[in-house]
Amino acid sequence: MAWFGDIFGALRKIDGLMRIERTHGDLIKDLDTRQRRAEAREEILVAKAEAAAATAASAAASQHVADLARRLGSLEARVAQLERGSGSLPRRLPPPTE
Q1: Burial (Cβ within 10 Å: 0-12, 13-18, ≥19) of residue 69
Q2: Alpha-carbon gap, residue 11 to 9, rounded angstroms
Q3: 8 A C-beta contact, residue 67 and residue 97
Q4: DSSP string over 3-62
Q5: Would you say 71 and 93 are in contact if contact means Cβ atoms under 8 Å apart?
Q6: Over the stretch 40-55, which tens digit does the pLDDT of each residue have?
Q7: CA–CA dist 27, 49 (Å, integer)
Q8: Residue 79 carries which DSSP code?
Q9: CB 69 within 8 A of CB 75
């Protein structure tokens, strides 16, 4: 009958190991879900950062284009004034706005 106790003890150990395996399986699934969510958030964050960088670059470029357009318009007005014969050419252009 001693062998019966050994078999019963072995079965309890196997049952305990099976419980641990199920628990670890659930934890691994939970970690996998968390990792996928973190990766999705990371992709969203990268997309937002790229959009912000593009917006900043566009704003900087448009500011320079606006400044160039203003200065070009000023030059065209001065040329037209000189062609009409009224006024004289100023010595220098106004400073650019930043």
Answers
A1: exposed
A2: 5
A3: yes
A4: HHHHHHHHHHHHHHHHHHHHHHHHHHHHHHHHHHHHHHHHHHHHHHHHHHHHHHHHHHHH
A5: yes
A6: 999 999 999 999 999 9
A7: 32
A8: H
A9: no
Q: Does 80 score more than 80 pLDDT? A: yes
| Rounded Cα distance, 97 and 88, in Å | 24
Tokens 């037209």 label which residue? 80
Instruction: Say if residues 90 and 78 touch (Cβ distance below 8 Å).
Output: yes
Calpha distance 70→93 (Å, rounded) = 11
Instruction: Give residue 60's identity as a one-letter amino acid code.
Output: A
**pLDDT per residue as tens digits for the range 24-43:** 999 999 999 999 999 999 99
Can you list the alpha helix ranges (DSSP code H) found in 85-96? none
Q: Give Cα 51 distance to the centre of its chain.
A: 7
Question: For residue 86, which amino acid is it?
Answer: S
